[in-house]
Amino acid sequence: MLGKQEARGLCKFVQHQDPNSDDDSTCFQQNIMYWIHPILPWLSLFPRLTSDMKLTSKVPNVAENQDIADALQASWCQSFRSLFNLLRCGNCDYFYLCSAQFTVLFRAAMIGGVASTSAYVTPTTKGIREGFDKEGISYTLPVLDLPTSVSNDNSDDEHVENDPLKDDVDDNTCWLESMGVAKETLPQLQQSKINQQRVKLRNIDHHSSSLAVVTGSHTQALFNYLLNNKTLISKTGSHAGIPPTLLAPVAFDGATLKSLNAKHGMVNLKQGKSLEKKYSLDITGPILPGNFSKLCQLFESTQQHQFSAVMKNLQATAPFNVLPPDMQAQDQSDDENFLKQPSNLGTTNLTFIKCDDELYTWETS
């Protein structure tokens, strides 16, 4: 790629120009860009959930200098506030907040087929959900299928019957009845209801079932909660003292422009008695949804409508593809912005895609 093409692609990305109105190299450069905050050249800040980096003497420990940690936190708060305001005003379709505990996907209104502003948090734990409850943040757990869990897990039902907490519930019920309160007036104390709630909340921490979805005005409450939540910052390890990573497709206050790492390759594959050259392109980094779609369009036009791609995903973020059943999906099939269309992947990730003569096939896991 020529320096002129790289510079033109960077400018077109920043200016949000049509990516298909220039040469192929320029379009490619434009489609591998993203905005990130914070940025520390000596540390990898994505992914945060599965980082294997270990703190060594060569890596500065931010947590040891409180002044630096406070400055990073203040800068991060300003960037987070700027990005959320862009989302609310419709100038940003989505952005990610990546911490060591969970990842949050914020979506603008109408994105993903949901009419209001929304936020997807995964994975969550009982402690995180209790924190939401204390702050009055209303949320749903759309992946959790309570009837299936109850009917298909007999061993869990037996566990509920033998649960030592059952005796406490029975004692409380007897005490209320002795005070003249009829059991029928408190349906939440019925054993079937109690069993269902225990099945609902058992063994979902750190799993896809723990996905919490916040919508409407409660998204603002979630933003305020995250903005002031000190537990988002790790106390130990290579990321100690460093705020969560913010990723977005548009510029925001304090953001740094970065590009994905792209490496070309070529192999000779035996086809019968001859060798056929096959070219590969390895792209690493946080490939945002908009980038992936545009790259597929670019490869389709430059590779004679024949190419295939293998994706390595963060499995913990697969629930982001879920459309909560209690939300009415808005039909956006005629809209040019594909991000407004509801996902049909459920709790799976896209792992393979192939284009053959303009016909796409794909695999999920």
In the sheet with the most strands, the strands line up as: 5-4-3-2-6-1-7
Helix content: 25-40%
Characterize the biggest β-sheet: 7 strands, antiparallel
Shape assignment:
globular
Structural class by helix and strand composition:
alpha+beta
Estimated radius of gyration: 24 Å
Beta-strand share of residues: 15-25%
Q: On the 0-100 scale, what is the average pLDDT?
A: 81
- Number of helices in the DSSP assignment: 10
Record the SSE blueprint.
Layout: H1 3-14, H2 24-30, E1 33-37, H3 66-88, E2 94-98, E3 103-107, E4 118-122, H4 126-134, H5 146-151, H6 154-161, H7 165-178, H8 191-201, E5 212-215, H9 218-227, E6 245-248, E7 256-259, E8 261-271, E9 274-284, H10 289-302, E10 306-310, E11 350-356, E12 359-364
Antiparallel strand pairs: 1-6, 1-7, 2-3, 2-6, 3-4, 4-5, 8-9, 10-11, 11-12
Helix pairs in contact: 1-2
Structure overview:
InterPro entries: Donson (IPR024861). This protein has 365 residues and is an alpha+beta fold. It has a domain at 34-144 and 204-257. It contains ten helices and twelve strands. The strands form three sheets. Strands 5-4-3-2-6-1-7 form a seven-stranded antiparallel sheet, covered by helices on one side. The protein has a three-stranded antiparallel sheet with strand order 10-11-12, with no helix packed on it. It has a two-stranded antiparallel ribbon with strand order 8-9. Helix 1 crosses helix 2.
